[in-house]
């Protein structure tokens, strides 16, 4: 507690220091001091508005979520709700799709569709030469 009071006393200017700051501001800004003060006031108001908006978002996130999650006994004791329903999937038309697909696939007994693959035991002993780069 004493340290906080000491820190606040250290940071707050005395009346003579505040008068010195006002005189320096008058010398630096002169006639433009009202404009400078007005712009400072607007900037400070916008900063406070932005900070309060952020604070409101945090408060909504903290306090609204538990309200949404809270248990309402009336919702769970509702006699209109009978539980999840399950129905069998509809497979009608599936057999015709499978049969038409099988009809379009050639049979393996057909000699014209058999592809001959070359033998892989052929070894070529000729050296490989790289083309010269230009």
Please tell me the overall pLDDT.
73
- How large is the radius of gyration? 43 Å
Distance between the termini: 84 Å
Binned, the helix content reads 55-70%
GO cellular component, one term: membrane
Pfam families: TatA_B_E
Membrane topology: Single-pass membrane protein
Keywords: Membrane, Protein transport, Translocation, Transmembrane, Transmembrane helix, Transport
Sum this structure up briefly.
It is built from five helices and no strands. It has 134 residues and is an all-alpha fold.
Would you give an account of this structure?
With 134 residues, the chain is an all-alpha fold. It has a domain at 2-70. 57% of the residues lie in helices and 0% in strands. The chain is built from five helices and no strands. It has helices at 2-11, 15-29, 33-69, 73-76, 94-104.
